[in-house]
Amino acid sequence: MAKQRSTYHHGDLRAALLRAGEQVLADTGPAGFSLREVARRVGVSHAAPAHHFGDTQGLLSALATEGFRRLLAAMRARQATAGPDARDRLLASGLGYVDCARSSPALFRLMFGDERIATPDPNLSEAGEAAFRQLCDDVEKLLGVSPFSDERAMARVAAAWSLVHGFVTLLNAGHMGGVGALTGDREEAFFRSALAPLLEADAPAERKAPQARDGRRRRPAGPS
Amino acid sequence: MAKQRSTYHHGDLRAALLRAGEQVLADTGPAGFSLREVARRVGVSHAAPAHHFGDTQGLLSALATEGFRRLLAAMRARQATAGPDARDRLLASGLGYVDCARSSPALFRLMFGDERIATPDPNLSEAGEAAFRQLCDDVEKLLGVSPFSDERAMARVAAAWSLVHGFVTLLNAGHMGGVGALTGDREEAFFRSALAPLLEADAPAERKAPQARDGRRRRPAGPS
DNA sequence: GTGGAAATCTTTTCATTGTCAAGATAGGCC
DNA sequence: GGCCTATCTTGACAATGAAAAGATTTCCAC
User: Fold this and answer.
1) Does this model's pTM top 0.90?
2) Nearest-angstrom CA–CA distance, B71 and B90
3) Which CATH class is domain B13-54?
4) Which of A144, B68, B147, B167 could form a disulfide with B154 if both were Cys (CB 3.0 to 4.6 A apart)?
5) Could you read off the pLDDT of A123-170 as tens digits, one per residue?
6) In Å, how far is B205's CA from the nearest CA of chain A?
7) How big is the A-B interface in CB pairs under 8 Å?
């Protein structure tokens, strides 16, 4: 795999390391990830990555950042195929979320399930928040009120995100048995059914939920 | 921490390793977990754990098994405080799930987010399935039909599990902002509100969900 | 009891990894 | 052309997981 290199300088090492890094991640999982293995695949010395990413955490964070960008792209790609109905569009975002998590499970696990990622990387934070804003926008278009100013709308965001995120997490962990075998129509049907109560524009069933007693606002959820 | 030991044999090394292992996991997270560090804390040689757990994966799997047992215990503990109403009991299970994930986040992350755990360990499988059965029983008592024989009931199980699991996963990853600051009443209120549509005994809102066209049954979801 | 046999734990060794420091090479800028 | 800096390599070190071989204790048939 390590292509011959005549020049001393690689030319585009940073990008090559990212590509190889994702490959290693997919092959071995986050736990088996090795910086030296990445360097080996690219055909450079084992210390070369340090000059571009600092340490292992740096490369992993860069990969996670790329993952969040792809997550946003996947949600938007699904939305592009949806109609103008706000419910359909929110559903489409959810399906895009599933698409992304499914197509690169190891990367997804890294993004949300690795403590090495909890680093103050501005690029990472920005990418994560962008994806989160997409979800908030979807809910706002559905309810007509911004989740950032309305507590109940934000609760809706949290519920929808939790449902979709939990589903793909369990799916990728192999805990979803036959449901995981669903593709296309059936998966969409499952989601439409499960998300349906959250997709209503009118007040959801909150009859038993007492309103918050104190004035503390529910801060926006969001990555990092 | 490593207490002096006069005898050559430890006496209860296996249990001691499990205790120390959980401590290390909590201190360093799954990524930083080290077998040698565990041995060091117990005060034995670095090769001692191998005779009880084989390799790192073996110890981690044993820890995950213990985690699943505690998960089931936490769900039951909450149920013990609930009334006879089937909705309240299912809600209580969910709150117990959150309790467990919250009280030991690193262990929870290990259980569901580490590829080293996907091992054919019969104890692990059994413990995971026991917790899953608890959830299925709750849903069965609510709907009057077993999820293992009814596809729509199983879909309800998958949705409820996804919602709760996604919530605690995002919560532990720090993505839940202010919602994570909720304790007691407010958290319960949020869950009651989000789960409410899934807690109805009558058919959930599935109007837009076409029934499965083929005869393939939705296999029961479940760990491993 | 007693003498092996098995279980438990230690010591030693080796390959691998992440990180750091120092040196080699290339491109850019004056 | 000559220096300067970014880029990459080489070498070294400590830590880790795992395996092999040795030491110590317990167990158990007799």
Assistant:
1) no
2) 14
3) mainly alpha
4) B147
5) 999 999 999 999 999 999 999 999 999 988 999 999 999 999 999 999
6) 6
7) 198
